[in-house]
Amino acid sequence: MGQLQFFVVLCYSIPFLVILFPIGLSFSYIFKITGLDRWSNRINNYLGYFWYRSFFLLTGRTLDFQQGNWDPEGNNRFLICNHTNAMEVPLIVALPYLSNSKNVKLSYLGGDIIQRYKIIPLMMHKTIVEAVIYSEKKPNFRNFKTDVLRVLKTRSIFLYPEGERTFTEEIKPFQTGVMKIAYKFNVDLDVFVVSGMMGYSNLPEYSYLKKTKTIYFHFCGSIKAKDFSTFESYLSEAETLMKNKKKEIEALEKSAVIV
Predict the structure, then answer these.
(1) Is the model more confident about 233 or about 259?
(2) Which positions, given as ranges, span the membrane (predicted)?
(3) Residue 134 three-state SS
């Protein structure tokens, strides 16, 4: 097992080994069944926050979270972020507590990561939207689109527009499938960026990230679909926002090592 794989296993072991999670999820499901959705959602949000805090404490990392002018209230939006590896998920599900908005309702869109790590649908109940598996001979795009639009009526959806874990600090080009749905149905975007996750690897090019021991999770800006006359300009603006913020953070990371 490589160093990065070890940390992934450690990260996803926490919800299964810490007694707080089965107890919390049990109460969450009871509240959901009895119609107390607000308290069910709040418990889930806190568990996500506890998950990220526990993992960072165990691995000696600190989080630099900058909310900027992000407004967590409201629904019918896509929250997008770059996707280095699976250890970013605790940050995503912790976002309501990180932003001091304990009642924010978020869903999560993903493919194989949902199948691999069952704790994600457990923590988010049935609000998960599974991505179309492109290897299928007849993928049901219509049902997928319907599911996405249905979930957006009550909450926002977090997704990774690169479409895969990149295992690099470089931001890859965005996939167009889900983003086309967003543009066609006038879905606004809130853009975030994560930096520093490859500091958990043993690759020499990321050795400076081991020294800083800081993970950055910053808001880049919002994009309103109605402001763009073409899908290409809408997609390009999202990529540009994310990449520009990533460059700013990388300058901070390297200056911290020099100091």
Answers:
(1) 233
(2) 6-31
(3) coil
Distance from C-alpha of 4 to C-alpha of 9, rounded to nearest angstrom: 9
Residue recorded with tokens 């977090």 = 158
pLDDT tens per residue, range 47-82: 889 999 999 999 999 999 999 999 888 768 899 999
What are the distances in angstroms from CA 149 to CA 9, 29, 126, 137, 157?
Answer: 33, 24, 14, 24, 10
Domain with residues 3-256, CATH architecture:
3-Layer(aba) Sandwich (3.40)
Q: How many CB atoms lie within 10 A of CB 155?
A: 18
Secondary-structure breakdown of the chain: helix, strand, coil percentages, each rounded to the nearest 5? 55, 15, 30
> Could you tell me the CA-to-CA distances from 172 to 128, 146, 159, 181, 199 in Å, in that order?
24, 27, 14, 20, 18
| Three-point CA angle 74, 91, 123, nearest 5° | 75
